[in-house]
Specification:
Blueprint lengths: L7 H13 L1 H9 L14 E4 L4 E4 L4 E2 L1 H5 L4 H4 L3 E6 L8 E4 H17 L7 E5 L4 H13 L2 E4 L6 H11 L3 E5 L2 E3 L2 E3 L1 H9 L7 E5 L13 E3 H5 L11 E2 L3 E7 L7 E6 H15 L7 E4 L6 H13 L3 E5 L10 H9 L3 E4 L1 H8 L4 H4 L8 E5 L5 H11 L6 E4 L33 E4 L11 E7 L9 E2 L3 H9 L5 E9 L5 E6 L3 E4 L2 E4 H9 L4 E11 L3 E10 L6 H15 L8 E4 L13 H8 L16 H9 L3 H4 L7
Parallel strand pairs: 4-17, 6-7, 6-8, 8-11, 11-12, 16-17, 16-18, 18-19, 19-20, 29-30
Antiparallel strand pairs: 1-2, 3-13, 4-5, 9-10, 14-15, 15-23, 21-22, 22-24, 24-25, 26-27, 28-29
Bound molecules: adenosine-5'-monophosphate-propyl ester (PRX).
The site of adenosine-5'-monophosphate-propyl ester has 21 residues, from α11, β20, β24 and β25.
Amino acid sequence: MLAKITNLYDYIQKYHNSIQHPEDFWAGIAEQFFWRKKWDKNKVVEWDFDGPDVKWFVNGKLNITENIFERNLYTHGNKTAIIWEPNDPNEKGRRISYKELYEMVCKFSNALEQQGVKKGDRIIIYMPMIPEAAVAMLACARVGAVHSVVFAGFSAASLADRINDCKAKVVITSDGNFRGSKSIPVKFVVDEALDFTESVETVIVCKRTGDNVNMVSGRDIWWNDIVDPAGSKHEAAEMDSEDMLFILYTSGSTGKPKGVVHSCGGYMVYTAYSFCNVFQYSADDIYWCTADIGWITGHSYIIYGPLLVGATTVMFEGIPTYPHPGRFWEIVDKYNVNQFYTAPTAIRALQAYGQEPIKSFVMESLKVIGTVGEPINEEAWHWYHAHVGKGKCPIVDTWWQTETGGILISPIAGITPTKPSYATLPLPGIQPVIVDKDGNELKGNSVEGNLCIKYPWPAMIRTTYGDHDRCRETYFSKYGIYFTGDSARRDEDGYYRIMGRVDDVINVSGHRMGTAEIENAINEHPRVVESAVIGFPHDIKGEAIYAFTICDMDGRTRRNLTNEIKATVGKIIGPIAKPDIVQIVPGLPKTRSGKIMRRILKKIAVDDTDDLGDISTLLNPEVVQEIIDERELVSDDNRPLDKK
Ligand code: PRX
């Protein structure tokens, strides 16, 4: 367990110190970990945002799993590390102690090495939320291989893209996944993906659903066949602080997802530090984050952060509404969860069921409740506070990103103030600034602009895999400091409110989608000539996807075509990227230089067309009225084909 912030005065003092003497501040935290060799004297951080070239704990040697296991086994070897709650509440859950998890990780590490996995190899993990997924991640970290977890809802094409981008040698998957009432044939998706890749030598398949799968001889092996005979002791590989720990792909404003790279030392220090401070985790607490390990939240706050501080972390395989919309609250009571961390989308979806599903659960154990991934509207914030937190739990509205590795702006539970829909204040060590469009820092309070971070922090992105220029151009070139892609307001009290993305990224249910990425997928449909995708407000999902498409109808009905287009996106990216609305349009409003005027499309999408501004300079102003007129066809055109 790390030393925590204890009161408001302590927060203010630590924040101040962290700005005045950042290196001393971070050294003080890093010293609480186990380093095989400490970082070089006076080299806590070396940085240059022009590169960018950022190194933390320079020449320090460590293994993150040694900090999870060996550092802690004497004190809490018998403590539960993971409580696993299956999709089906009638199936028996699992409680895995630190000692047991250690053994599972050692065995799988030996098995991986037996398969020829070496330090630096890339391994794709495409798995359901089962403890073996955590074991797979930790074993990669232990042998020094670089894991890249791909959310198991992504399509074969998306999986293949990621495998090819990082030239993965191994894929770890399952036979199938349980999700609500469905069983998803995951191994089948892997097989499809591997038709389009060349680097994968081995596929390790963990049995979950028991479904029949095709095992390719010489390539596919069962998890148990290699783990059962493996030894239960394993000497962790020595990693440099700056060695790659993992790659996680995320969407950006261009078509291709980018591989965000995190490194061993800085990520370890920051995830543990932010976890125990933000949630004010105490030794006997039961902590539950409902994210999927396919996203950064699952990496940092189901696996690494909690396990590094010896926490008990709940891992839930299912979905919030299965078999009933009180499932989350049932699990809170079942395990006496103390800290509960979820997404605003889930809160809004459950709020929509009213009080009935929640009222029979006492949820007395809860001390802290949190949100992540998207702005939370005031109404959902108050509902969460009153009905889940029963009016007594602070809400930590945590702002951060895949690229930041951990929470940067958030209340410290019970210590710093909360404010509905505000992420509030930066953690000590974090220096946010708001800049205008020319990059001038807007000092003082009551300002709004683009959110940047002007000093490095240990868990920040190091590069985008295989394309360092892209990392520089996306995050650093514009202002010379780290640009988040978000706009924010600092109010009269100095609290930060995140306003949303300023780039072409849509945040659907807390998941980032690039508009260009969705457009590319839509354009794969043979009848689509051109498309423009925008986000529009949605009561539950935060934002939903609206696609304007020019099509060559070729005798199809509009309704058939919109359904086909959605299916195409589902197949190319995955169901989460399917547009909510596809409008077939005669043309797209464009400037004379050919740029699509998304501003106009956004207004049309929300039916706010009274004041579209000056459209006379468009290349094709007449198309705007045609699109408005045809908007009334949208609801009929978008009816699913199987429903009348
Ligand atoms: O726009 C911000 C939004 O989610 C983006 C990051 O998405 P991703 O990398 O997928 O990571 C999500 C989980 C950390 C941000 O640029 N976002 C994240 N947290 C918040 C938020 N917007 C408002 N409030 C938040 N608490």
